[in-house]
## 1
Amino acid sequence: MFSRNGGCLAAIVCAFIGILIGVLVGCFGVNSITKEDQKRITTYQKLIEDKWASETDETQMILDLISPTNLRNNLKELSRKPHLAGTVRDDELAMLIQRRFVEVGFDTAELVPYEVLLSYPNHTNPNLITMMDGSKKVVFTSKFKEEVLHEDDEDPDLVHAFNGYSAAGDVTTQPGDGVIYVNYGRVEDFEKLEELGIDVAGHVVMARYGKIFRGNKLLHAEQRNATGVILFSDPGDVALKGTDPEDVYPNSNWLPGTGVQRGWASPLEGDPLTPGWPSTKDAYRLDESEVPLPKIPCQPIGYDDARAILEKMGGRAPPRDWIGGMKGIKYNLGPEMLGEYQDYTLRLQSHNLLRNVNIYNVIGTIKGSVEPDRYVLIGNHRDAWGYGAVDPSSGTAQLLETARVFGQLLKKGWRPRRTLVFCSWSAEEYGMIGSTEWVEEHLEKLQERAVVYLNTDTCAAGPILTPSLSPLIWDSLVKLAKIVPGVREGKTVYDEWAAYYRARNRSSPQLKTLGSGSDFAAFAFYGGIPSMELSFRTDQNKYRISKYPFYHTGYDTFHAVDKFIDPGFRIMQGCGRLASLFLKYFADSALIPYSLQQLSRAVGENLNKVKDKGKGATLLKIYDKFPLLEESAHNFMTATAMFAQKLDSVKDTLDPVMLRAVNDQMMKLERVFIMPAGLPGRPTVRHAVFAPSQFDSYAAAGFPGISDLLYKIDDLQEEELSKRHKEIRRHISDLTILLQKASGLLEDFNLI
């Protein structure tokens, strides 16, 4: 932290300045102070001013200005047509957002291009799943596009249902044999099949969406030598009120049987051809053959089509909790077909194409008046699999309204202490490509200057505040949630949030760290920049579902949001208010409002989770220095507590130099956890303490490298086991050193 006498020095400097000003005023009167003296006094006051604390009128102005009407109008325009990445409409929206940034008075608003590899279906040769009887007659053909159920649904540019980056292929099963139902396609689901003596090798597998990232489902199947994958949304996850027309879209917010979830299905993030470096025009690119993209075809279908396949499947009955929500379907595991269908074959045809295309990020800035070289960033992606009214356009509608509100503040003479950066990303739906390439291009600047990144991908999928974030941001979020008016019946967003947790027998909201799945990933896991995903999601106390029913389908429309998800646009207004206050709080607080003790507490809690279920004993057996990791975690908790205590005692007396130095200590703390070579086996995931799970990219994991290395360790043969033990010892040593470094960063400035 500060030098050992730093607090006293700061107090002396402040006292001296105060006395000097008093003497000048007392002896010579205000008019006798020279212009140079006044300029110095004004500059000093500007350097130490806490604009967040002093500008209460601006805080109220933000709350008042976020307009539901503007949000509704923004969303209507943004979701008017499909806007898949790399298409004309996505480019049009990029230019629209750039114009808006210019119109509201931003200092800069730029289109930033990248040339990237994207995946598309062949619209002249649709992906199909067909079934043929013994006479080779086609008795079933899957739909490759939703039925038009409302006027908002009809557009010739709506992309066919497909899974991005899944391989082109043509797979046919043996007569009466070949399809296996694998529940959600999780590791534990495949392990259950192995226990039951069912081998998926050589078969097409059929998995329902939900629980984990679709790319992990495909990877798990490919690793076990399946020949293809069929994904479907089950009514038990997306149509909980029933599947009759009156119970689903366009008459409610539940998914009808023709709704098909699209989505990228590759384990990679960023442009596949430029891993670790930005895909600028003249960048070196790998050959497509060098890229580890999926090797087997994968095709999504709706539950109407899934029924036509599942009803014909025989084989072993499923575990009870594998039975979905289709009435009259037994969800048999296969691979045998039922007696009357024993001459049937299933054919999976995928004709996906890879294309190099240009995409555009939009980057707008409001220059800071005191620390222009410190960045507070907000962003969300712009591209969508269809109309994208919820994902991502609810976030983009908010981004535009937040920009307008800050433009109004600028017109009144306000300017932030630190620079605000507004980001509209493209190609997020293909693996966070736009944001990843931008972070890779500006990594050194961001690691040196970025204060925080706020992501607002899905502002309004439901009424419940559902953030995931770096623990450093937690206390600030709680504080701001207590200011923002509620989006339902509660006095504040925090009141509603707390009530949700009380219904789950929790006394208060619980901190959830980040998994992957949106544009915060490169900031958090590659750059070590404190980040938050701000979203409002479905009430899990009422409906235990993943995401929201229309997710990534052709029915994620303005009509769905306007009539069912957020009529009145109060949820989106709450999201906009919270995002705007968050930006101002981190941009204008003299002392950056990080929660160091929340970070150290999360480190300790996650290490304890790693040790659970006997893993601690296993690690100690493998590496007798494992207790040093525990000791370093404890020392880090002590160091953060001491730092916080010292800072609290002197924070009101810090001179500008000390203030800047303390802020830099805190800002760079999480960067210490970045491992340059990445986690074991995962070079692009570099955060050693908080990162996505290896087996579900959506899920958060603490100390994920340890969990990865322990996975199935008991199944390894002697040579592989010895190698794995060596990797574990090395990784535990690395973690111990990182935590020691983090503690050292919080020491007095004069100590190296």
## 2
Amino acid sequence: MSVFIVLSLLGFLSFTPEAAPEPRSYSCSDGSYFGPNSPFQANLNFLLSSLTSNASLPDGYYRTTVSPSTPSTITGLFLCRGDVTPAVCQPCVAAASKEIRRLCPNQTESIIWYDVCMLRYTNGNLNPMVPYVSLRNTNTIASSERDRFDRVLSNMLNNVTEKANIQTGSTGKRFATAEVNFTSSETLYSLAQCTPDSAGSHVSSEPLVPPTSGSRNISMIVAIVVPIVVALALLVVGCCFLRKRASKKYNSFTEDAGIDISEIESLQFELAAIEAATKKFSDKNKIGQGGYGAVYKGILPNGQEIAVKRLSVTSLQGAMEFRNEAALVAKLQHRNLVRLLGFCLEGQEKILIYEYVPNKSLDRFLFDPERKTRLDWPKRYKIIAGIARGMLYLHEDSQLRIIHRDLKASNVLLDASMNPKISDFGMAKIFQGDQAQANTGRIVGTFGYMSPEYAMHGQFSVKSDVFSFGVLVLEIITGKKNTDLYQSHQANDLLSYAWNNWTRKTPLELLDPTLRGSYSRNEVIRCIHIALSCVQENPSDRPSMANIVLMLNSYSVTLSLPRKPASLLGRRTPNRQNNVVDSDQSTCSILWSELRFCKVCLSTMTENANNLILRRRK
């Protein structure tokens, strides 16, 4: 059996030897379960304990079978990334053995993987199970460079898989990395790993037999089984307590928001109706794709056009939380927010149904050389003002204070009249009462739009959204992405580029060249002034959305002079175990084309890589 890992990244990848506290993905068996206190459960506990105790082996791999040739036979293995030490491998396997029991509490076959390790068990053969995760880059390859990029990617994947297939070091690891310079400033990295099923690998040569009460290994029973039983008992009691408390808190919260069961049910669509509207999620109806799922255009029987967001099946959000959140977002009514019409929750499907916005997202116009000509200055000024009004509604005028946390050009939709509508509340956080700030260990959002206090310390508030708004305003004015390089202007990013022109008293140099023929000089300078005020390092120096709306509508409001803006480029986020950056598009200027665990030979791996390239072209 061979378990293969392949990564290809465009940007800068640091192989940090730390296990993430949360799994990247997991998969449970479908339709095969074991009962509580059954022999299978006892064997599973013993197997996971054995895997954990063997995680300190130097080759980072172990596979064994418990109680062979019995109805309760179970086989398991773990594999740690080839570039990590046993000191890193062991805690990851220990965490995986605990988490897999929580996520798949009574399944007879499960797999889970983290950044540096994976763990799996089954009551049958170790046939391929292929979970995956993908993060998409905000940058794109120029059409003129697409063919060359595909050739470079294909050659690199072929080389790294072949190298991993034949490479065996003193520990028996079959692990390889490769890198290729795509441009002078962009490097393509890849990693491949096979299981070391060869001489010298630590595969258990004899199946394990769990000790019985009459065996001589009574001390092992006490040392292994008793702590596991106690830990499981505490875990069950703790989970029940926390779940009950969270349920009470959530029910109280939804009651405060005015949500009742009858209202929730009225928003639910049947899956059959959604499939009919989208022609069974036909690729021809697909209008968008993000890390959280695909978006399809649909038409209801009454002729109403809808946008259907089909969330990824790997979403860990519970059914009740999903239903309540959908009902809550549906209560947000503002002309500058995209309207949620309902949801569908059947089986593994979690689907959101929105109003259809014909011109799709702002970034399709703003960063396209041809489409941006349709955005003259009056339209751009209207878009800026509309986004500000929508954010003000979220922060102050809706029933609850809502922090969007991922405001960016791709999350602003444009209707037929080019009016902006803020969308994608998948990362939004709701503040209650007088709450003004919150901390989190899970950093979500898009690099380049995140405020420094959030990206570095996990602190977010309404001022975090204000920072994102300032970046977005500068993008609208310049027609350039914040992640673009500005080396020719002695600046690393858009914020520095804007500040340099502001201090040189040449703010109009920022203006998109397509606007040079017709624009309001006072409006442009005022918008630049507001944007620079929004991206201040200190959150308290940034204006509120209420003041921003006032500044956009009245020239009698005096603007304070901005200081030098914050700049995240060149900084490194601290190595906190809880730091995770998520978004519907990738966030650290890094392209993760695919991460897979699969049973495969070299020829199959090459074919998969070529298929990936073909899908990218389509």
## 3
Amino acid sequence: MLHELIYSSIGLVLLAYALDYAIGFTNDVREPKRVNPKVPLIGHLLGMVKYGGSYFTHTSIRTKDEIYTLPIFNAKIYVSNSLRLVPLIQKASKTLSFRPFHKTSIQKISGCSAAGANLFDGSLTDDYDRILRTTLAPGPWLDEQNLRMGHSSAAQIDAMIKDGEEKKILLLEWARHIIVQASSCGIFGQEHPFLDPEVEKAFWKLQAHLPIHMASLDFFGQVVKSHEVMHKAFLNYCAAPPADAARTLLERQRVLREAGMSFEDAAKQETSMCMAMFGSTVPTLYWTIWELFSRPKVLAEVREEIETQAVSRKPGEEKETHDADAETDFLLDVTALKTRCPLLLSVFQETQRTRHVHANIRLVLEDTFLDDGRYLLRKGNFLMMPGSPIHRDVSVWGQSAGTFNPYRFVPNPSKVVSADAVPPPSGFLSWGAPPYLCPARQFASTEILIIMALLAMQVDLIPATNNSQWEQSPALDYGELVTVFNPARDVEMYMKPREQGVGKWTLKMGESKTRVPIASG
């Protein structure tokens, strides 16, 4: 019996290798070269399950080709890890398209009906995208949204330290809460659905179980349960949006309803917006905190930069706050924070560059030649464009590409790691690649800069474990659909008020249409 089992196992392994070898003959010589899995047939699939979006970084290390093929049974995933090919792929957008995935992802994430999702087969996709870009562009609408978000951030930090006592927090849990509350205040107004802890809890359950739901493997209905809580909250909210709801919320709902979507499905679409707002902003904030506060020298320089460029004390009549009679000790100028604090912005962008794992996906709708016929992409297969291999490419970023350099994005820096540390004009893909850039990038960037500035000026953060030392390479959670991975485990921190930052903080927006000068534009 044992011998039969051994022989059967050996036979199955040999059969798998034989099938993998035979399938290799189906490759057209003009297609990108194959990178074979270590485990035949399913090896790459297992790798993607284990490592998520970062798997393409692992496979890119195994080849010097700028585009290559990952075979999975008789399917193929083409992986482009070359900055040179990005504009060529964009030009072929009619045959290399994200649109086939858009409707499915909308339906899975929002939980709307099939009829509601089918509306995205028509002009609604373009109309919806256009209204997002219009209402989230720098200007008065975004300023109002940012001001609500900023005041919420300041209030939450103030609530943590107003008694002057040191607090112990779980850093990821805290980052999640402040982003959800601040973003929701900006988008949905002060009376937003996430004031209910159960709604916030339901969102994070949705986030955690979304990958298995997208694969139709959510056998215990965890996403369905989360949807029920969130849908009830958004149906109540959208029935009578408050007066301070952001223009982007109102215009989104208008466009959806005018396209023929039911009220129920339109309200459920806000679930998708929450995924876009919270899911990747949280780990980006988390690691930006980690990278800054673990470097005392850089933290001191950032504090000096903010103090001299963006903070004024006792502004008197100049103050801008919800309570006109409130005493203001510190005024944070958001325009100055955006434009005159390059080191803080550099730390933020370098965090994105070194931790970005998202891969843009396209379906090959028709046989497509790239690079004047050099590469053939066959119809029915998939194309992935991961940003991480480009962000780590020494031909793009120089020999310091694998090093975290907090000064990398500082214009004319005096403290660079090396002369080749200056970023190229088009090599930063954390917000996507033109013309498909995240429409909310200015809002998200402003949010992180505000929270980082308030934290830097008001508190010290000290690890409560590991002998008060910041861990060098914490383990990551590969299981969520995010552009930056969360840590595998939360970490306890002591949040200690700084004497220099004690007092009431408020914000002013300054000149309208001011942009955060992020590398993506």
